[in-house]
Input
Amino acid sequence: MKLLVSNSGLLKSVRSLMLGLSMAVACVSAISTSAYAVSATDADGRSVALNAPGKISVVLYLNGDLEDESRKVSQGLDGYIGRGDFQCVRVVDLRGDVPPVARQSVQKETLKQLDREATRLTSVYKKHGFSGSPRQDLSTILDFQGSTLKALGWNQKASSVMAIIYNKKGDEVKRLDSVTSAGQITSAIKGL
Output
């Protein structure tokens, strides 16, 4: 009888140990499935984390056919751009559209457009009390090869502006396949 009690106690100890190991494995799995870093080089030559920790990140898909739509969406985010905990990165789909000899010209024109946009945003920064330079907060990635687009799951050219929203932990929280107004984005980022 004493042996049975002893075996019963051993069985309880083994069960407790297995439960503890299961919980430890679950914790490690949760840690290993956290957000992975997505980064690319922007038109200014800066390495940009698209899902930067500590920031709500909005990544917009654009292409040459969506210039008017993307401008409207971007301007609708003006009140967020200068916040220290927010970033908006535009990824321009140029796969197959620009021959290698013309890429430097496209980059120079993009930089001029970003300079003009920064000038326009100066009054917005003053109105909202944002510090810093609007130009430093503007980031556009010209994706000629499609590597950044593929990393984001945008595998083919789209006919509408799209967006991915990341929380401050760098986790994707929302994917919008057809953005027609900034309101869709601002609604999704409330509470993040």
Q: What stands out?
A: The radius of gyration is 24 Å. Helices lie at 2-32, 67-75, 78-81, 103-128, 147-151, 182-189. Confidence is low (pLDDT under 50) at residues 1-34. The first helix runs from residue 2 to 32.
